[in-house]
Amino acid sequence: MPKLSEEYFDLVRQAVREDKQAPKRKKRRLPRYESKAVPEEAKIVINLDSDSSDKEKDNRQIAEDSQDNFSQDDDEDYDSDDFEDISDLENSEQPANEDVSVTLDAKLADSRPKSKSKNMISNDERKFRKFYHMFHLLTFMVHGSVRNKWLNDPKLHAKLSKLVPDSVFELLHPKKDDELPLRSTRKLLDGLKKCMEIWQKHFKQITRVETRGLYMIDWDELDGPWEQPARYMSQKLFNKKVTHGRGSLEVASQGFVAMLRACGVNARLVFNAQPPDFTNNRASNPQGAKAPNEYLADPGAKSLPRRRKKPVSKKKDEDTERYSIFWCEVWDKISKKWITVDPMGQRIIEQIRHHTALEPRGKARQSNIFRYVIAYDRKEGCRDVTRRYTTHFNSKTRKRRVTKYPEGEEWFQKVLRRLQGRKRTRTDDMEDMYFKQRDENEGIPDNMQDLKGHPHYVLENDVKWNEVLKANCKECGFIRTKNNSASLKVYHRKDLLVLKTARSWYTEGRILKPGAKALKITKSREFRTGEATEERLYPFDETDLFVAQPLGPNDEVPTNVYGNIDIYVSSMIPAGACLIESHVAVKAASFLRIEFAKAVTGFKFEKKRVAKPQITGIVTAQRYREAVEAMIDGIEYANEEDKRQECELESLRHWNLLLAKLRIKQRLITDHGLVRDARMNSAWGGSDAVNVADDAGETSVLDDANDDDSDMGFEAGGFVPDASGFVPETAARESDAESAGMQAGGFELEAENSENSYQDSTLSEPAQSSSAKEADDQLEDYEAFMKDLEKEESQAESSTHTDSDFNYESE
Fold this sequence. Notes:
- It is a single chain.
- The protein is α+β, with helices and mostly antiparallel strands.
- The protein folds into 6 domains: about 5-110, no CATH class; about 125-225 and about 230-285 and about 315-440, Transglutaminase-like (Coagulation Factor XIII, Chain A, domain 2), CATH 3.90.260; about 445-500, Anthopleurin-A; about 500-545, 2-Layer Sandwich (Wheat Germ Agglutinin (Isolectin 2), domain 1); about 550-640, Alpha-Beta Plaits; about 675-795, no CATH class.
- The chain is built from 24 helices and 27 strands.
- Strands 8-7-6-5-9-10 form a 6-stranded antiparallel sheet.
- Helix 6 (about 155-160) crosses helix 10, helix 18 crosses helix 19 (about 625-670) and helix 19 (about 625-670) runs antiparallel to helix 24.
- Pfam families: BHD_1, BHD_3, Rad4.
- Belongs to the XPC family.
């Protein structure tokens, strides 16, 4: 921004004089603002002084700084009537040469109304809650599978089967009544009722719930603390509780399933999993506290903030325990249906047609709702039976499940297949038909909110920009608005056609038919230029399968204008060609000098939505496939070998540095004597000084100095450096005998003391000869090692090459 000229300030002064002569208008009272904590950068000082050139220079600098804080758009938002006229400042009794200071609060810089902050979570927190919901659900499903396996324990069956008398056992296995099959079903229901009574008498001592963690908790309760922490439950302890008839409601329900299986009944354990609600987007953390995902991402952070958990009322406990999260299902071979039995919660037996009495109501829904109802059978089967226990599954329940997303549905089905321990049976097929019938009987939702994202129905106004209704399709229903002023049509979702552009169809391996007619035209903007353009959308019926051109006479691969070939699906590969994907495929084909083309298999969108093609391999003739793959293996092996050699050379350099340090250390010990670590510490920062020679003329080496010297000699390889290279330790000591008087840091010692000290610190004569021999051997080994090291380094430098240096000519 250019600096303000002096003429600008002359115009300001002239305007002030004109305003002074103009008639006064009624002054409006300014609102009172607090200016106690006005930052320095928010203060603007305007000096109206024509005599001082230095002040004008400062004014220009201040004016430039003020432009960074206040934009022109902000200035236009202010109303001139809200401020006092500047002429009033001139009419005051201030001298003309004094400075006039105007202070603006930074809080008033933007007077535009701001939207109220919503108590909503961020996108990162939303992703974390979805991830935690899936993780929590997975642990629940694995927990139910483990408990289901415990219920098949033969030892437990042998003890529980004794509780059921023979009369009740016969009722559990009724014979088929051909005249009236309902009689057989009735006998089974009577047998289940008697078993439930037997189990309630057996399980007399009911303790608390196994753990509150099995029930749904709020997001601000993840950090606890729990009033009753969960106790580790082993299979041995579980069998003991079930056999003696004492434990939690969950253990009691699971034990009832084990008793029925002990009697040969096809009974399933049903678990109503309660992970936290990921659709709850309200911020629940206290102000200033970290979100749970921040603590997971930061290992060094402190533990989660502890909050005082409100005591749960006794009535709320009773409401929660009234509705079980574990119950039982029994297969009726006569009616080909599953019978629901809740032995501990509602204590009912029902054949569900529309509604179920097991669905929680009232305050119990805060910690127990129907979203994931998983059933485990005696053959370790695992199935999702939520559809049986929910009336509005598609319109309400599905929105609370992770399966409303395509990737969530795929993940959930993968978990079910992983926990499935048996093959599919006819019972599963009949149950799937029942679930399909329940879907059809659910009908159209009675409000617009439930129609949003419905899997079977769509509102006329909710048709997307790339969708269109089929020609001559009829509505399946109507829905009225709130004021009943109009009716909106409802269509089946199967009557919708998904439209795509010609480019989008091409990425799926399809091209437009000759004379294809677009069913819809939409307006869009070009990413680079920003100009409005029109895009034509076509349905699937207006496209044909893309057939690539065949290879040329010399195996030439047909390419586009950029010299590449588009391979988005396998059907786009030319006949007689193959796609080889590798990051070195282009290099391998270039070495072999064969015909090929780079394959573009997708696009990557970068900043400003610029599409960058992704080349992941090549397309070449099928007969070259083995040769290219062999070359790729060779190049990858050569790259790995180069990395290994670089790592080895780096290791040798580190060893060389270590040996040099050890030689320096050995030379210091030879010249100045050995110093213990404790004395070295005192020499650096302690109060006691280290003296090489004491008052008695003996060195300060301790009694075990010989051991330390021998250790250091071994550690240093037995060599000390000199000007020419490395010589044995004994030779170094002989060469340094002349300078024995210059020890202890350069101070000359007395001849007698230095001689005694040297004799005390040296080894005996046989030891010197043996150490000299060992030193000679180590010197030869070290010289050979250094020669090998120099040779390997020279070979590594000569082996360094570029891609064009490869030559595969025969020797």
